[in-house]
């Protein structure tokens, strides 16, 4: 599956770089998400733990034939959102 990234117009690089996230981490989360659910306006939200141990939230959109993913942004989960995610995993028995 092809993955494209939203490009920051001013910096001319993927927006995920603004949040210290790289493409390898995004791809890992998309393939190994602990949670993948619907987001706003047709987007999806994938949350998971990278190989290095960071917890990331990736916001993306699938194209109409599901052959391509467009990643809008990705950032590290911290604080209350991370605690809520871990609590949901425990309830589902995944952790």
Name the features.
95 residues, alpha+beta, YaeB-like fold, two-stranded antiparallel ribbon, 7 strands, 37% strand, globular
CATH topology title: YaeB-like fold
The backbone outline, from C-alpha atoms, is globular
Number of helices: 2
Helix/strand order, N-terminal first: EEEHEEEEH
Strand order of the largest sheet: 1-7-6-5-4
The count of strands amounts to 7
Radius of gyration: 13 Å
- Report low-confidence residues grouped into runs of 5 or more: none
Mean pLDDT: 93
Write the CATH architecture name: 2-Layer Sandwich
User: Could you say which structural class the secondary elements and strand pairing correspond to?
Assistant: alpha+beta
Distance between the termini: 28 Å
Strand composition percent: 35-45%
What kind of sheet is the major sheet?
5 strands, mixed
Number of domains: 1
CATH classification, class level = Alpha Beta
Helix content: 10-25%
